[in-house]
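Colleagues,

Please find the record for the two-part complex below.
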Amino acid sequence: MIDSLIAHINKFISLDEADIAEVKTSAKAIVVKKKEFLLQPDEICRSNYFVSKGCIRLYFINRSGQEQITMFGIENWWITDYDSLETGKPSQYYIQAVEDSEIISLHKKTLDELLVKVPKMERYFRLILQKAYTASMRRFQYFRDQSDEERYRQFVALFPGFVQRIPQYMLASYLGFTPQFLSKIRGKPESRTRNQDNTDVNS
Amino acid sequence: MIDSLIAHINKFISLDEADIAEVKTSAKAIVVKKKEFLLQPDEICRSNYFVSKGCIRLYFINRSGQEQITMFGIENWWITDYDSLETGKPSQYYIQAVEDSEIISLHKKTLDELLVKVPKMERYFRLILQKAYTASMRRFQYFRDQSDEERYRQFVALFPGFVQRIPQYMLASYLGFTPQFLSKIRGKPESRTRNQDNTDVNS
C-alpha cells in the first residue's frame, strides 16, 4: 500500500533507497471501512492522510444542521485539516471514508521528523500544497461566477468517473446545492450523466 | 526593501549569509503606483510577488462585468496566479496595486533556480502555501456558513486596520456583496466600524 505513496512522491522528486526507507518507516498504512471517521469535531487533527485506494471526504455541519463537503480525497490526494494539524486547536471538521479505503497516515510528529531527515520532502509537499491551493482558488472562482447548473455540468465533464462513484447527495453538498436540484438537472435531456442511473442518493 | 523579505523568510527558516546573498540576487525590488497592474488577463503570470509595503489585489471580471476580488496581499504576503505561473497558460486574473506599493518580484525561472541553490527555501514556501491554503479553506467555509452581515462583522473584527485602509467597494467585492449592502450594515448602530468615516467607496 505504501508503494503507491512512494510512486506518487517519485512523480515530483527523486527518492533514493535510503529516502524510501525513511518514508516507509514514517508512514502507517491503515484500512478504513465506509463511513468510518478519521477525524471528528473537537478532536485535534494529528495526521495528514494520503488516499492509496478509495475515497475520503472532509466536511462540517453548518448551522442549519446540514453537511457541507469542503473536499474529497480520492487516489493520490492528501487530505487533512491543516489548521488543526498545525495549531493543535480542535477541528471543526469530519474526515470520513466514503468507500472502504486504504490510507497512508503520516502523524504530525513523524512528518516533521521526516522533513528533517529527508529535506527534499519539503519540495514534494510544497508542490502538493501549490496544486491544492490552485484548485481551491479555482473552485472559489467557480462558486462566485457560475450558476449551480453550470458548476454541475463542468464538474461532470471534468470528473465523469468520480460523479458515478459517490452518493449524489454528497455531490450536491460539495457543489453547494440541494439533492432535489441535482435530481432535476440530472433529468434534463442535455445532462451529460446517465439519466437511467437510479443510484439511491442516500445510500 | 529586500530586507523585509529576508526578515520574513527568517521567521520560518534560518538563512546564512550565502543564502541571503542568493535571495538578494534572485529578487527584484519594484515600486508600483496605485492602480498599476502587475498582471492582466491573457498575459502569462511570470512572477510571484511579495508585498514589502502597500496593498495589492487579485481579481477577475465576472460575466456580469463586475470585479470579483479573490485575494488581497498586504505587507508580508505573497500574491500570484499559481495556475498560470506553473502551467504557463494565460491568466484570467488582474493583479493590481490598491495603494502605492513596494513589491519584491521573484521571476518563475529565478525562483526555480533559487530553490535548487537554496533548498531550504522549499520549506519556506511550503509553510507559506500551507498558511495560504488554510486561509482559503477557512474563507470558503465562511462563504458557505455565514450570512453576509456576519461575514462582514467577523472580517472587521479580525482586520480592523485593513478595513479602514481599502476602498469600501473593494471590501464588498471581496466579501461577496454589493457596496449598497455594505453601506447599509456599516450604518447600523451595532457596527464595529467608525460610522463617521465617510470615505468615498469609489476613490
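Chain B has nine helices and eight strands.

Comments are welcome before we finalize the supplementary table.
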